[in-house]
Amino acid sequence: MSATTTSPASTTTGPGGCITTVPGKYGHVPADACNSYYNFDPNFVAAVLVAALFGLVSVVHIGLGFAYRKGFTWVIVMGSLWETFSFVTRALGAHHQQSLAYAIVSQLLLLLAPLWVNAFAYMLMGRMIHFYLPEKKLCGFKAPSLAKYFVCFDILSFIVQGIGGSMISPGASSQTIMNGIHVYMGGIGLQELFILAFLSLVAVFHRRMRALAREGEVVIKEGWKRLTWTLYVVLGLITVRIVYRLTEYASGIKPSNPIPYHEAYTYGLDALPMFLAIIALCVMHPGRFLRGPDSVFPKKTKEEKKAAKREKKEKKAEKKRAKKAKKEGVREVEEGVEMESRA
Q: What is the DSSP string of 89-122?
């Protein structure tokens, strides 16, 4: 899976001294050629094997989602499927290395797929808080709100990484690629910042559950320890992948930095951690433990939504009236003071 070199049949010199090489078998050219879309010679067998593994675990997650009737598991399925199609397109690209489309799609899916897994961890934690804690809130935040906030943070990171990932796509100019690397690194830096903040909340939840178990005042539902440690493992594996990507791009894409030029790093430090994270969520599937009415967030009926909307409007109107009355009171006082001064 490391870089290999083939001897081209002939070369031509383009503008600025750029060397365009006549493609060899499967369209392969040296990594420094103008018409190279890969920094290595993609390994077809490895890509097919990894795509099959991610595809298999995707099918398992789909089956478990239906079996346990957990609709929110579509998020982890998306992450697994994006990984699957990333390596499917990499396998296709390995035999069609002059196809820019295969190279771009494969890279973008690989860079962005982990964010789906990250979002699923956030959503799972929200449901754990609602299911296990009697107060159904943590650090003053209601479970649905907490999950929603962190998913929004994940979407922000997704957008930033998407912009950066599109800029470092194969075929872009060196300046665009460098700018894209900076944007992408900022995006995964944000992602890790949110993960660290989230881990602190997981630790608070962990301590709270241990306290409840010691006090024995409430019946502790089973599975909280397994799910909590699964979250630690999943977020730890995502962090390993983030550190790898930061290390890869920190020194730039140049010959002095060997990481971008050896495919084995991608399989060992990106694909493997994400596969293990998805497997962990498969083995410790939330549906095994989150069962019953408290396992899902309560949904308001149309009447309840209308009543809440009406109550919100009334509170807003009352606030306006109070503000207006306060202004009128101040005005009356000022007028009284003025009249006294004249007298």
A: HHHHHHT-TT-HHHHHHHHHHHHHHHHHHHHHHH
Q: Report the distance separating Cα 7 and Cα 43, nearest Å.
A: 18
**Which amino acid is present at 162?**
G
Phi, psi of 114 (to 5 degrees): -60, -25
Query: What is d(CA 104, CA 97) in angstroms, rounded to the nearest whole number?
Result: 11
Per the DSSP assignment, residues forming a β-bridge with 12 are: 20
Bridge partners (DSSP) listed for residue 137:
142
Give per-residue pLDDT as tens, 161-206: 999 988 887 777 788 888 999 999 999 999 999 999 999 999 999 9
Sequence-distant contacts of 222-227: CB under 8 A, at least 24 apart: 222/289, 223/288, 223/289, 223/290, 224/128, 224/132, 224/289, 226/284, 226/289, 227/124, 227/128, 227/284, 227/286, 227/289
Sign of the four-CA dihedral 8, 10, 13, 14 = negative
DSSP state, residue 268: I
Say how many residues make up the chain. 343
Q: Sort strands 137-138 and 19-21 into parallel, antiparallel or unpaired.
A: unpaired
